[in-house]
Amino acid sequence: MLPPHPLARLEEQLGEMAKDLQQLQEREEAGQKELAALRRAMAEFSAAEKDAAADRVLLSVIRVLDIIEAALRPEDEEKIEALRRESSVHGAELAHHYRAELQGVQQDLLELLYQNDVEPFTCGGPTLDPLRQQVLARKTAAYFTDCPEGEMLLQSRRPGYARGEQILRREQVWAIQVLPRWMGEELANGQPEPPDPR
User: What's the domain range around 66?
Assistant: First the structure.
């Protein structure tokens, strides 16, 4: 048997090297794809973390707005007027000044929310939307309706806030059960208490 020709042996070695080189290139391409996917995932995670941190700050602003809104109730204006009438003019002027300052802060905070694409919303209507509304309390109304099943009214207590389609805080409502007139008549005749509206 003749030894293999040196040229044939060289061609065989070159073929094996070409296969090895092809495998290395495929591994390199796969590694580059994995690296690119990892970089994308890290960028997305970083963006999600930034959004979550921004949401936490915006929710804090919303809570401060709730406090200011509670301090600016219309009945407080009536108290200021009563102070003015009772000759405590200085106290009334001071209260009026602080009220105006609070209104300015309220406007600044609302502007901050608008700059971050956050909008207040209320749903309105008789039907509860659990994705956009949160029931703070359930009450029974002191009056009755002619509707035989009764009615449920929703009274907005605080607006909800959304950034685009994302709800940061649901609208906060009271659910008020209005009992049917026939049930009111039964109650007046000594019947038991109305059913729990839940």
Answer: 55-116
